[in-house]
Amino acid sequence: MKRYLERYPNTQYVDVLLTDLNGCFRGKRIPVASLKKLEKGCYFPASVFAMDILGNVVEEAGLGQEMGEPDRTCVPVLGSLTPSAADPEFIGQMLLTMVDEDGAPFDVEPRNVLNRLWQQLRQRGLFPVVAVELEFYLLDRQRDAEGYLQPPCAPGTDDRNTQSQVYSVDNLNHFADVLNDIDELAQLQLIPADGAVAEASPGQFEINLYHTDNVLEACDDALALKRLVRL
């Protein structure tokens, strides 16, 4: 933490984040002065892992009202403090992981489930290597005449991206500003992005991450990249 604040002295807030079952981050924003308190942990309800994509608790999971919505301790994931794409100069972000009362990993947290399966494979002498690729769409802020979403125009022109043009280098050039911003922010967050390609649909792009044998880091990086692109 001290080293991070020396490098980013203007940091005012830190987003502390848990990963839910839908691959979405849930958490809160705290003042940077409160960061040191996180060494002892902070608290979130177990129901954060029983939410649907809209943030509604699915009571049938048994982690909500049935349990009385108990808070559980969450501790920082070491090495996960990075600048946030929301405002990298003033806002940082850090991953949390939930633990039981005895300090053991909370068994239904997706990150803990993944780690448990990964360690089981390693114990069997199996060492998976993964590489994640993420695809996303750039959309015009203005909808079409019928109210539907539409692909964007090339910046500074009226040339709307309506054709496939898969692997088009021209498309990469047309949208270089936003793709370069994504790449710069990925480097700032130490996300190992390998390159961008224009995909099959209008306004669709793909960014690949490097192969790695660290399955947890691969998924952490993929979720961080997804958040970065959306912000």
TrEMBL record:
Residues 9-103 form the GS beta-grasp domain. Keywords: ATP-binding, Ligase, Nucleotide-binding. The keyword tRNA processing does not apply. Belongs to the glutamine synthetase family. GO terms for molecular function: ATP binding; glutamate-putrescine ligase activity; glutamine synthetase activity. Coiled coil: none annotated. Residues 110-231 form the GS catalytic domain. One of its GO terms (biological process) is polyamine catabolic process. The lineage of its organism: Bacteria, Pseudomonadati, Pseudomonadota, Gammaproteobacteria, Enterobacterales. Gene3D superfamilies: Glutamine synthetase, N-terminal domain (3.10.20.70), Glutamine synthetase/guanido kinase, catalytic domain (3.30.590.10). Its EC number is 6.3.1.11, 6.3.1.2. This is Glutamine synthetase. It is an enzyme of class 6 (ligase). It holds the Pfam family Gln-synt_C.
